[in-house]
Amino acid sequence: GIFFFRNRHALGVSVMHHYTTFSTSLTQFLLSRYFAFCALFVFLFLVIATYNRDYVDSMPPDRDLSKEIEEYAEVCGSLTSDLEGTGPERFWIYFVTPTYVRPQQIPELIRLSHTLKLAKNVHWIVAEDSTSCSPQTAEVLRRSGMPYTHLISPMPAYFERFLRKPKGVSGRRAALQWLRHHLKDLDSQRAGILYFGDDDNTFDLKLFSELRKTMSVSMFPVGLVGDYGISSPVVKDGRVVDFLDSWADSRKFLVDMAGFAVATDFLMSRPSAIMPYLPGHEEDRFLQSLDIELEDILPLADNCTQVYVWHTKTLERDRGVIQHPKGWRTLDTNLGSLYEVARYLGLSDVNASR
Amino acid sequence: GIFFFRNRHALGVSVMHHYTTFSTSLTQFLLSRYFAFCALFVFLFLVIATYNRDYVDSMPPDRDLSKEIEEYAEVCGSLTSDLEGTGPERFWIYFVTPTYVRPQQIPELIRLSHTLKLAKNVHWIVAEDSTSCSPQTAEVLRRSGMPYTHLISPMPAYFERFLRKPKGVSGRRAALQWLRHHLKDLDSQRAGILYFGDDDNTFDLKLFSELRKTMSVSMFPVGLVGDYGISSPVVKDGRVVDFLDSWADSRKFLVDMAGFAVATDFLMSRPSAIMPYLPGHEEDRFLQSLDIELEDILPLADNCTQVYVWHTKTLERDRGVIQHPKGWRTLDTNLGSLYEVARYLGLSDVNASR
Q1: Cβ A76 vs Cβ A152: under 8 Å
Q2: Which value does ipTM take for this structure?
Q3: How many CB atoms lie within 10 A of CB B182?
Q4: Which residues does the record give as Mn(2+) binding sites (chains A, B) (predicted)?
Q5: Per residue in A225-249, pLDDT tens?
Q6: Which residues of B are known to be catalytic?
């Protein structure tokens, strides 16, 4: 593709060069047309920039927003069990994972379930951006054998219009809502730790013992984030004093979604704390809504000198399209069942022309 | 980008249209120049195609090759332990993972170690494409608590010249060499199963109980492979009769690296079996070197109707470059130690201008 583009470019320059010797007025016409195009792009850019800026700055405050947009959440299934082991660190980590249907979804959830199973005493809250409970996700959760809550909470249609969509926010909001409700029913509200862990990130088992030290809010380094390749609080004399993160914008807490945890009793003491639908600012605004200052943050992972979580990303790919091989029938081979499974797992469609 | 391309295109057509009315000879010149470009590209394409074809077809046979190129392998460390559990399926799965240094490497190995730990009775052979033993990889292996062998085996310099390099082959060859040596020392050569599992793929725990059924060679579906989104044998009446895979080329066995397993006693009965340095053809040629036919293959995963392994790929990214924040010193904050760890883990470099 790029070669033909260059080819065309050379051709264009050559034409322009010779052409000016024949007709200046036509050149001017061409130039004006060129400028018209440029002007159009500048105009479009300004429209888009204004449109998005408006969205971030003048969006109604969160409580009013909830009246304007319809939020919907549902519990698909839940499994609780008794805590394992003994000792003071015997409480739940509520691990919140927003997810959505895509060809990579099921393997992502499966390999994350392996980590969480080894971590022990993790209650996995999986919230799907969907209007219906996915049986594939339910199966992964059931098979994991660990305590879980399966939620659905689609992104409100209001946000479809924006270029940069607040991904996973509706899921995390539903998880917060479920957690508050769940904790109210428990005897002790000092019941655990809230942590947001996406389905493609990577978690060292050491992270989980660190998380259990959280008193109100804790923070720690995250690898593979931004231009620095790492995001972390700056810690001096055992206290968080600043942040090392390549992207500041107007944020107060420069922290990745996977870089902090909140004790559930502290969360319950902040009944209005909520995550807003603001792409890139979800962490910061959620932490601000907890009404904390830098001195309230407990630095973990050896005073923020170790990396126990990585913002790995899995390559997205489209569903495949299977071309049925000639000479074999779906009924007397494995192909019929295999096509069904490939469809069920969201891996492939089958070419209808078979 | 695409908009400017269209812009230029419209401009070119407009110029061409008016131009023909002025000078036909110049148009011919332009056209001939255009054809010259085309001819150049066709020529380049033929050169590249010939170059690569030559490489695949006329490369010396494997044993001669080993005299021409220098192969080097070394054992960095190894840990063995007793088999867990009881029953007839109590033997080792030798899980071969080639790997190389990159920012994602350590998290990849960590999360794979979680799966392998749960799978039980897995001996993890990790072979690095490197001339020196990486202490970071050694640490992951040691901390996993599972039996492992840590190898290094750099790709021979001979292959650096090729556009499409045989990635991971030197590691798998070293692993095969180590395994043959290791099995010779054991009392029973029916000691386990050989499986090639890359560090970014995803493995359901069900895969491992399937692998243990392998008699000589077994095969099963792999998700997220090729244009079909899946690769699998075609099974009729319990026998492998063909393959469903979007990429055929001249391969006999259309199977992904993660889509087959070999019993170690069968491997030992084929002393000349080896994986050649042929990008895209490694699996096929290795299986051919085992001297098997379709009827020797045992279809697993419910007669190849279930997906227990996925060819997930992790997004590659460059090392970050940390800009040291003004106002903080590395010595009296966490930053000095954190920079060291970020460098050690291959996540980031630090801007020298601090």
Answers
A1: yes
A2: 0.82
A3: 19
A4: 200
A5: 999 999 999 999 999 999 999 999 8
A6: 283
